[in-house]
Design a protein that fits this description.
Elements (H helix, E strand, L loop, with lengths): L1 H35 L3 H13 L6 H16 L2 H17 L8 H21 L10 H13 L6 H25 L6 H24 L1
Protein name: DUF4239 domain-containing protein
Keywords: Membrane, Transmembrane, Transmembrane helix
Length: about 210
Amino acid sequence: MKKISLFFLTVLFIMLLILYLRLFLQQKDFINEAKQTNSPVKAISYYERVILSYIPLSPYNREAVNGILEQCKKIDNEQKLYCYETLRSALYQVRSFYQPYREEIKRLEPLIAEIKTHEMIQWKYNNLSERDYQRLYNYNIEILRYDGSPSVFWSMVSVLSLFAWICSICFIIFKGFKTPINKRYLLWGLTGFIVFFSLWIIGLYNA
């Protein structure tokens, strides 16, 4: 049993290592593409792909964030909104149990709110003026800061309980259903099965 577990852990480690290296090389290629193009929009797109291929500890993550911010300075106001929103959206998409570059998102939100507020005022059909600026800005910033993401705590509960539930099934099969049937292990396995399955459902509901 120990040899089988060691084998699966080794295979899992090698697979994760290969996946990490693949994403790392993919980030490197996108960074090179972004640096070679003369189009700011294309460069933003390549940097965005680097962020979407986010892997912890990669130096290309920060390089891509800085790369997009550099491109934002080169383009006009209409494209600035696209630029800032692309960066903010990409950072939110790589969120897992933690949010990478949270401080960067906080710096982007006022910039996006400011551009959107000016656009709302300038659009002639809205019939708005500079006197409405603060009210519209507060409205936009409130929407941008609304956090509708799932609860981290309950997300962790659901993931860990799912893993424990699968382990309890393996425990029942390999320990409980031996010949002759081991009633004590079977009882522990069934208890774990019910408890962790219930926790998984509760975690999904509350997340």
